[in-house]
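pls ignore typos typing on phone
adenosine-5'-diphosphate + seq
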Amino acid sequence: MRVLLAASEVVGFAKTGGLADVAGALPRALARLGVDCQVVMPLFESCRRTGRCEQTNLRCRVPVGPGDGVEVEFWRSTLPGSAVPIWFISAGDMFNRDQPEFGRGLYQFSGTDGSRRDYPDNGARFALFARAALELPRMLNWWPDVIHANDWQTGLLPVYLREHLDNHPDPSIAAHSKNISTLFTIHNIAYQGAFPPSMMEWARLDWRLYNPLQLEFYGQLNFLKSGVVFSDQISTVSPTYAREIQTPWFGCGMQGVLVERASKLSGIVNGVDYDDWNPAVDRLLPARYDHTNYVTHKPQSKAALQVRMGLPGLADRPVLGMIARLVEQKGFDILRPAAQAFLSQGAQLVVLGEGDARHRQMLRGLAEQYPNQVGIYLGFDETLAHLIEAGSDAYLMPSQYEPSGLNQLYSLKYGTPPIVRSTGGLADTVTDTTEDTLQNGTATGFVFQDYSPEALRDAGLRAMKLWRNQPEKWQSVIQNGMRQDWSWSRSATSYLNLFNTMRHAH
Ligand code: ADP
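k done
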C-alpha cells in the first residue's frame, strides 16, 4: 500500500491547529504498519526555519495561473523521529511569507487595525499547492494507491487528479493516475475556502464544472465542496462528527452536499501521542505514575497544582480542571452558572486558556468571587497543561461541538475522569458512569446531552458525589480510562482498513 498524504500543515514544520498533529503522526503510524507513505506540504518560512528542509534538483512548471504556468521547486526532509519522506513545494513568495514577528501567519496577516485577514490570494496559493502536489508521483516515479487530502487547502487535489491527470497527454501518466483513489478528510467544517468564480480561470478548471452539483456553492468556487464531491471516500475525525455535519446545526451549510455522499462518509477518531501525553513517562510531573500506582503518586500532582494556582492544598476537595482555547465552541457560557454550583459544594476549579476577551472577563470575575477556590491562568502554558491533566480529580469539556478532541483522551490516560457533552469525538470516546457501565467495566467519565448549564451542573455534581462517597467506584472509573488505548496505531489501523477498501475501487 502506497499513500501520499497532502496537508497544508505538519507538526514540526508548520502548525496552526490539530490538522498539523494528524498530518505528522498518522504517516508515522501508517509506516509502522508497513505502509509506504510520503507527505507533501507547502514550503512555508516556518519550514525553512527548522533548518531541516533540503533543496533538491526537482523542479517543474505547474499548469495554473496565466501564461505558461508557475515554476515550483521541491524540497525534502523526513518526519521527525522517522524515515517517512516529506516533500515541500516552493514557489517564490507564494508560500514563503509567514513571519509571526510581523503579524504574518500561514493563511492570515494582521491588518493595520490589528484585525486578522486572509491573504487575498489564498485561492491561488492552494490551487497551486494542490496541482503541484500531483507532479510529485511522476517526478519520483512513485505512484500511490491512495492520495489522502486534508481540509479545504487540498480540496482541488481530487479535482485535478480526475480532470488533468486522468486525461494527461502522456498515456502512461493517465494510466497511473486512473489507478489512484482519493480520501478527503474534514478536520473542521467551519473552514471551507470559498473564492470568487474568477478563480476557475486562474486554477485552469473547466467552466463546465462550475455548477451546483460540482464545484459551485452559493455563487463561489468552494474548495471544501470540491474535495467532498470529487473524492472516492470522505472522512472526518470521529464517527459522531461524521453524522453531525450532515445536519444544519453542525454542517455550516454543507449538510446537503454531505447527505448526498453519506454512503462514502465515515469517521475515525484522532490518536494521542503517548510519547508526550502519558503520566508514566511525563517529565513535567512531580511524580510519574500508571494504573498500578496512581493512588500514591497522582496526589503529588494535585498538591503541586494547588500550589501553582495559589489554592489551599486541601486533599479532600475535588479539583475540576479545564484547558481550552477561550472560544464559544468550548462551552464557557454554560460553564459559568454550572461552576457556581460546583464551587458552592466545595470544589476547586482550575482553568488554563487564551482567547476571547468575553471569556477572559468571565473567568476573572469567577476568580475574584471565589479567590480560594478558583485558579486561572490566561495564556498558553504547555507545562501547566500537563500538571492540570495530572493534578485535577476530574476534567471539564462541555463543548458545543468537538470534531475529535484531545484533552478528554489525555484525561482518560491521566486518571482524571472527563465530564463531557455528548458531541463529536467526546460522544465516541467517553462512556457515562451508570450502575450498568460500572458493572461491565466500561464507565470512563460523565456524559451529558443538552447544551445547558443545568445538564453540565448535573453531570458535574454526579461526578463530585461519586468522588466523595464511593471511592471504590471512582477508582474503577479511573482504572477503566487509564487502561484504554487511544494511540495513533489504533487510528492508523482504521485508516489502513479504509485505504484497503478503496484500492482500485474508484
Ligand atoms: P482544539 O484542537 O479545538 O483546540 P483539542 O482538545 O483537540 O482542542 O486540543 C487542544 C490542545 O491544545 C490540547 O493539547 C491542549 O492541551 C492544548 N491547549 C489549548 N489551550 C492551551 C493553553 N492555553 N495552554 C496550553 N495548552 C493548550
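The chain has a mean pLDDT of 96. The longest strand covers residues 54-62. more later
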